[in-house]
Amino acid sequence: MAEKPFICGALEGFYGRPWRQDQRLQLFQWLKDWDGMNTYMYAPKDDLYHRSQWRDLYPNNNLNELKELIQSCQKNELGFIYSIAPGLDITYSSEYEWNRLVDKIEQIQNIGCQQFAILFDDIPSKLSDKDEQVYSSFAEAQANITNRLFDYFSDSNILFCPTVYCGQMANYDVSGNKYLIELGDQLNSNIGFFWTGPEVVSKDISVESIKELRRVIKRKPILWDNLHANDYDIRQIFFGPYMGRSLELKDELSGILSNPNCQFWANYNPLRTLSQYQITETDWCPKQAYTESSNEWIQYFGNTNISEEEIQLLGDCFYAPGSMGDIGIQMVESIQFIMNHPPEEWDSHCNTFKSFEKTLNSLCEKLMATTNRDLLYDFYLPLWELREETEFVSKWIEWKQSSKGEFISPELVPRRQGILYDIQKIVHKD
Ligand code: GDL
Q1: Cα Rg for the chain, rounded, in angstroms?
Q2: What phi and psi values does residue 244 have, to the nearest 5 degrees?
Q3: Which residues have CB under 6 Å of ligand 1?
Q4: Is position 349 within any domain?
Q5: In terms of residue numbers, what domain contains 364?
Q6: Which among 278, 298, 318 is the end of a domain?
Q7: CATH code, domain carrying 373
Q8: Which atom of ligand 1 is nearest to the CA of 45?
Q9: For a designed S-S bond to 273, which of 18, 38, 98, 289 qualifies (C-beta 3.0 to 4.6 A apart)?
């Protein structure tokens, strides 16, 4: 059989408020315009009918929205994958449950969808008493129902997300993981298999780690890439490039779907640079792709006065999990230096800080005046917080240089308080 085309695109697979319809339509426009991108996967954890109430058919208004999405993907020559996540409470061996699953998938098939994914991530990994009498393992139960779907919907493409979906969940022993081995043996080899890398959020993914997985699951996995996901930490947002994956990695995969930031407008660089990674054959430079993408991104800000320097600062401060771009790194280093040295030694660090502050303030002012209010609201919280911290440092510098009296904080309202901070103070003392 001819090898299926490499799947590449965006996956709406995060927890929290799903994207809006108009945002998804904007996304399809991007995916269509960007070489290398060909797919959107619908998997919002908090679409009621996707997970919690997976048995229930979509009411008409929701169904019409899905239909519009499917038709828009068809028009834009993009693949649309509908996914369903029954794992929270399904009885795998029940014919009643099987019929609910079929009815639901048929409902979506009837509005034009031809690709489906069944997701078993983030569920209790224990079979019910009833299922225990029928299946010898969790893997067998999942493989069985997914193979049955594959046979039943034989004209459709079927994909599968396992419960152990990264190296960490296999205690970093993928080759010895019984669940994965059983799936490799029992899951029809034409069914796509999702994997997030060594971790749930994998900063780097080595070719070797995927080669090892391939040997176990007996197919090339599709990367469910959480690099830019931020649903696990409300204070973070990621505007940086697709990175930490070599070009050789693509040879080991049958696709890459990025599950990015919950805030739709934050995803321009993450997705744009993924498209560039996908079409690059040699000499992949994430930083260069990021700079080019950032400059394109300005057109969506509803304020053409935003400069390349300002956009770079924005992206460099909110870059990727555990890493910043150059401007962010310099800024943190300078603050660190200033706080730990007397003013006579500050020298260029003070200038670095002041110029950062100036650019940040002008960016914020321009954003306040943007006509793309939606984008402003998406970035508001992290930007506002960064601005406040910067103002705090600025006032502290003034005070230190004046060497007068006690430092009076510029904060007008109480913040960094509440139950989360109290728990964190106790639990993470360092
Ligand atoms: C997960 C969830 C995903 C979530 C992500 C980041 C998978 C397969 N599932 O574990 O829905 O967005 O982490 O928090 O990644």
Answers
A1: 24
A2: 80, 15
A3: 13-15, 45, 121-122, 161, 165, 196, 200, 224, 226, 229, 231-232, 259
A4: yes
A5: 308-402
A6: 298
A7: 1.20.58.240
A8: 11
A9: 289
